[in-house]
Amino acid sequence: MAPWMAEQPKTIVAQPTTLCPMDCTYCYLLERHLKQEMTPQVASAIAHGIAASWEPVEVVWHGGEPLAVGLERFAELLQPFEPLRRAGRVRHKVQTGGGRPITDAWCDVFEQYEIGVGVSIDGPRELNRHRVDRGGRPMFDRTMAGIETLKRRGIPFTVLAVVSQDGTGQAGQVLDFMRDLGTSWVGFNVEAKEGANSDGQTPSIDHARRFWRDTFEWCRRSNDVTVREVSNLWGFLGLTQDRRDADSRHDPIPTIAWNGDVVLLSPELLGVRSITYDDFIAGNVLENDLPTILLRADELLYVQEFAAALKTCKQTCEFFSFCQGAHAGDRFFEHGTFAATETDHCRNSVQAPVLALAELLNRRGEADDGLGAHGACGVEPRH
Ligand code: SF4
Question: 334-367, pLDDT tens digit by residue?
């Protein structure tokens, strides 16, 4: 096991199907048109690979569109995890883009297996024009119908939203929308060039800074929605140096494909091929268990290069203490190598929020007031 990598994952990403009925213009999934489904044998191998010594782990079912695998198959995939779930060692989460209707039958499954539900929606209708079906028709109303079903059933949900160039000036409207939607947690992914979205339009750092500045301002006024990035930064600022050092090992985030193949560090690497790195696959759970695959991680060229780049980041970047090197995949998608350091992703999603918060605090000279004293977006500093 590489010393910079956590000994166990906090999150395992599992792909029940590659298929997605949607065709979002910024989607990074290369195989979303293919119907390839996970078998219960693969799910069983994943479950059996969760070591008894591990802390509780979150299994995130992410596609494709995970609901596209169908209720019956999805329930079959959950069965091998049941002893672990009942023992509190596994929590399930499903991240749906709304590409299949969230019905009462799905809600029954979410309740029965205590599955956390995440929905992907980018804000008000006009900011969802990238989220379309195969015919180019907007998905907004269909996604909203699914959210209404969740709300009617009293099932809480989180939101992941992509921030495209045209949304960077509308943080307030987006957050008002999220609050009115009824979610209490949102994570923002600033659009990046990843996988199939290699020609995507990445916002500039100035636009991203504006987005985060407006987000911090909104959070200062409202405690209704926890924003992941605000929460992370605020939590970091509340840590002692010892805790910062202790929290600094990278989650390997094993991402397991429908057929049991495992990629590490970035779910976006699944299904990608490269002349230099081949298929990024670290192993297959039908042949080796997850702990064995993780133990061999540092034999992979992309893992080795990422480790070396982390050292460079640590030596050269003033944001490293908070950032810890950000995402491996973005280095590859932007620069063609994991040995690169700075990316648009880290500029927009790590540096920009830090700079935005510093700017606000400097401007107001109120580090102990407002943002400082009360936390932001309902988050109290961690100690
Ligand atoms: S902000 Fe970018 S360059 Fe700096 S440590 Fe993070 S990944 Fe490396």
Answer: 999 999 999 999 999 999 999 999 999 888 775 4
Pocket test for ligand 1, best of 322, 346, 354 (most atoms within 8 A of CB): 346
The HSE-up count of residue 163 (CA atoms within 13 Å, CB side) is 27
Q: Are 349 and 232 in contact (CB under 8 A)?
A: no
User: What's the CATH class of domain 8-383?
Assistant: alpha beta
278-298: string of b/e by CB count within 10 Å (b at 16+)?
eebbbbbbeebbbeebbeebe
- Report how far residue 114's alpha carbon sits from residue 98's, in angstroms, rounded to the nearest whole number: 19
pLDDT tens per residue, range 230-249: 999 988 888 777 777 666 78
Residue 12, sorted as left (phi over 0), alpha (psi -120 to 50) or beta, turns out to be: beta
Task: Using the mean position of ligand 1's atoms as its centre, give its distance from the Cα of residue 234 in Å.
Answer: 18
Q: Which of 204, 241, 218 lies closest to 171 in space, CA to CA? A: 218
Q: CB-based contacts of 72: which residues, under 8 Å, 6+ apart?
A: none
The tens digit of pLDDT for each residue in 302-315 reads 999 999 999 999 99
Domain map (residue ranges) of the chain = 8-383
Ligand 1 neighbours, Cβ below 6 Å, are 313, 317, 319-320, 323, 325-326, 341-342, 346, 350-351
The predicted model gives 167-173 an average pLDDT of 93
Side by side, the strands of the sheet bearing 11-14 are 226-227, 185-190, 157-163, 116-120, 90-96, 57-61, 11-14, 255-256, 261-263, 281-284
> Would you say 159 and 181 are in contact if contact means Cβ atoms under 8 Å apart?
yes
CA 38/CA 32 separation, integer angstroms: 14
Ligand 1 pocket test, pick from 265, 305, 319, 332 with the greatest ligand atom count within 8 Å of Cβ, gives 319
Reading the block at residue 112, the tokens are 């029965």
Asked if 40 contacts 78 with a C-beta cutoff of 8 angstroms, the reply is: no
Instruction: Give the Cα separation of 241 and 8 in Å (integer).
Output: 23
Note whether 266 and 294 are within 8 A (CB): no
Nearest residue (by CA) to ligand 1, atom 5, is 320
Cα gap 130→168, rounded to integer Å: 15
